[in-house]
């Protein structure tokens, strides 16, 4: 069984982003970029399935500018087998990403697509569900445990109130939550090896997908700030203040 | 045309999130119908019908909808979509799972986690873990959106009841099957609707201490218990208690952060609380920058002292 792992290049999770002063978006020039952390977890899970003999080949897909090849190389260095870069410029929305991935799935015929539950830039939390819908596949989102068993996959999901386990007929889409695994670091020899792994390129036109955005971003602003309040000297004073404020 | 709001519930009662999402849905301007899907959900439908301003409640009652799995729920909603200009749902885990499936089937780009209705086609939503707010205008013929409850006040309930109409639940799917749930049972209020939240961080040090320190204070205040991601990742608290961008987004009247440093990720989940209290022995903890009341003290001495003062 092949596994496809879509990965997104985003602003590194450790960077504090800045909104451009003219409100036209978030400053991306000269900002450190990295693989979306949830997608790293997806790559790791696919690798573990391959190591357990449940998968034969891990194909990593990224959609965006030419620099997304670096993100694919990161996944190849972790151990994925080959990459596909779908070149596209500008803002690519989850619906368009799902359509592009559907076209790739049609060619590659994977048994599983594993991807992050959301990207830490736009926080949409849509792509996996949309891909499952377009393919008419079952979906196991927000996974904290994934177990492949013959023609099925059992997915334990993080839901409001606790955990839920579903059993899906393969092929299926799984999206990863934080506690699924701890992604490995790529070793230097593997980083070198990754440079020789195959990386194909295609475009949205070649895949027959219209990736024009459907939502117009009118403005981007800083969130309304919150001022620091006062320091209190003791727990007793704290309780007294809260009583005065009427919340206790 | 009208708006269809999908109700979130736990199988027993209508969640507060639905009443909050209704406030946002009503701002779009169309009459709002509520869809209650599930198994044995008539009491939930009756509660939905009493929410102020609801035009009609649709009830789809059947075993296939028992756990609100995305596949049957999306099939149901797509079947109703012709009649509606707007399809909305609270941003609960069940709806975040199902609604993008609906949107893709309708070839519509979804707007996730709406925090403000600017105009009938224009909305605000947080991006980058709440570090920026984006205003988006939809060019779609139909709107599909999830609504962040913490950003809206709940619509009130009255004695008047909207008409309730039964509709057919979808058939069983072989592709996706519910195996089981492991839900936290608690007598405390729910995180999403609690008036007071007592939340613990990594400084608690262990699951035992987390419980031993937070439980008496939460019980005394009638509060829900929350946790930072660090505390959840360290195994001190179950994942469903996590407050933050990737956990629950809450806005109680009082949020008491104990031993929480205040990572951006956590702040994104609680900074809309009315009053924030931070107890931390580190004077440089970022949480103090947004706290209304800060107490620089070890939580292991501060919490017992607070309990003493509350007597």
TrEMBL record, chain A:
As for family, the record states: Belongs to the ETF beta-subunit/FixA family.
Tell me which species this is from: Kaistia terrae
Q: What keywords is this UniProt entry annotated with?
A: Electron transport, Transport
- Keyword Electron transport attached: yes
The protein's name in its UniProt record:
Electron transfer flavoprotein subunit beta
Taxonomic lineage is: Bacteria, Pseudomonadati, Pseudomonadota, Alphaproteobacteria, Hyphomicrobiales
- Family matches, as PROSITE patterns: ETF_BETA
Matches recorded under InterPro entries: ET-Flavoprotein_bsu_CS, ETF_a/b_N, ETF_b, ETF_beta_N, Rossmann-like_a/b/a_fold
Q: Which residues form the Electron transfer flavoprotein alpha/beta-subunit N-terminal domain?
A: 23-211
Automatic annotation (TrEMBL), chain B:
Q: Gene3D superfamilies, alphabetically?
A: HUPs, TPP-binding domain
Which N-terminal stretch is annotated as signal sequence? none
Q: Which UniProt keywords apply?
A: Electron transport, FAD, Flavoprotein, Transport
- Organism whose genome encodes this protein: Kaistia terrae
The segment(s) forming the Electron transfer flavoprotein alpha/beta-subunit N-terminal domain are 3-182
Q: Which domain of life is it from?
A: Bacteria
Question: Into which family does the record put it?
Answer: Belongs to the ETF alpha-subunit/FixB family.
The name this protein goes by in its record: Electron transfer flavoprotein subunit alpha/FixB family protein
């Amino acid at each position: 069984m092949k596994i496809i792992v879509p990965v997104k290049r985003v602003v590194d999770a450790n960077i504090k982003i800045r909104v451009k002063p003219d409100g036209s978006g978030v400053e991306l020039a000269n900002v450190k970029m990295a693989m979306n952390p949830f997608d790293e977890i997806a790559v790791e899970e696919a690798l573990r399935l391959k190591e357990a003999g449940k998968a034969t080949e891990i194909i990593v897909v990224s959609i965006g500018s030419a620099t997304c090849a670096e993100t694919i190389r990161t996944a190849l260095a972790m151990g994925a087998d080959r990459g596909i870069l779908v070149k596209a410029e500008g803002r690519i929305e989850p619906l368009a990403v799902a359509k592009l991935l559907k076209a790739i799935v049609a060619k590659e015929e994977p048994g599983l697509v594993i991807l992050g539950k959301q990207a830490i830039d736009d926080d949409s939390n849509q792509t996996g569900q949309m891909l499952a819908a377009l393919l008419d596949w079952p979906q196991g989102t927000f996974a904290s445990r994934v177990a492949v068993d013959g023609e099925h996959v059992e997915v334990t999901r993080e839901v409001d109130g606790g955990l839920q386990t579903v059993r899906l007929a393969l092929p299926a889409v799984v999206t990863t939550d934080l506690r699924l695994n701890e992604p490995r670091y790529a070793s230097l020899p593997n980083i070198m090896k990754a440079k020789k792994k195959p990386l194909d390129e295609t475009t949205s036109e070649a895949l027959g997908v219209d990736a024009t955005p459907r939502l117009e971003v009118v403005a981007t602003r800083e969130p309304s700030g919150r001022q620091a309040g006062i320091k209190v000297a003791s727990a007793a004073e704290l309780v007294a203040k809260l009583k005065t404020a009427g919340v206790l | 045309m009208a708006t269809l709001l999908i109700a979130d519930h736990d199988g027993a009662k209508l969640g507060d999130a639905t009443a909050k999402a209704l406030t946002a849905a009503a701002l779009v301007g169309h009459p709002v119908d509520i869809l209650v899907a599930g198994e044995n959900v008539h009491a939930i439908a009756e509660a939905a019908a009493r929410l102020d301003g609801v035009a009609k409640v649709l009830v789809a009652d059947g075993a296939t909808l028992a756990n609100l799995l995305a596949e049957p729920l999306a099939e149901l909603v797509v079947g109703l979509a012709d009649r509606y200009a707007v399809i909305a749902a609270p941003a609960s885990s069940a709806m975040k799972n199902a609604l993008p499936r609906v949107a893709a089937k309708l070839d519509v780009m979804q707007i996730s986690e709406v925090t403000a209705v600017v105009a009938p086609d224009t909305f605000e939503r947080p991006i980058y873990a709440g570090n920026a707010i984006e205003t988006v205008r939809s060019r779609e013929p139909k709107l599909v959106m999830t609504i962040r409850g913490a950003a809206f006040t709940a619509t009130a309930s009255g004695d008047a009841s909207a008409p309730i109409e039964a509709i057919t639940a979808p058939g069983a799917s072989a592709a996706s099957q519910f195996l089981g749930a492991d839900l936290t049972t608690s007598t405390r209020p729910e995180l999403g609707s609690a008036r007071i939240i007592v939340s613990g961080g990594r400084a608690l040090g262990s699951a035992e201490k987390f419980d031993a320190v937070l439980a008496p204070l939460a019980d005394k205040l009638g509060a829900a218990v929350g946790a930072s991601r660090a505390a959840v990742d360290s195994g001190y608290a179950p994942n469903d208690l996590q407050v933050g961008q990737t956990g629950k987004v809450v806005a109680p009247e009082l949020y008491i952060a104990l031993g929480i440093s205040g990572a951006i990720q956590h702040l994104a989940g609680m900074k809309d609380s009315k009053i924030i209290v931070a107890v931390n022995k580190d004077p440089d903890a970022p949480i103090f920058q947004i706290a209304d009341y800060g107490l620089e003290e070890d939580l292991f001495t501060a919490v017992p002292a607070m309990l003493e003062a509350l007597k």
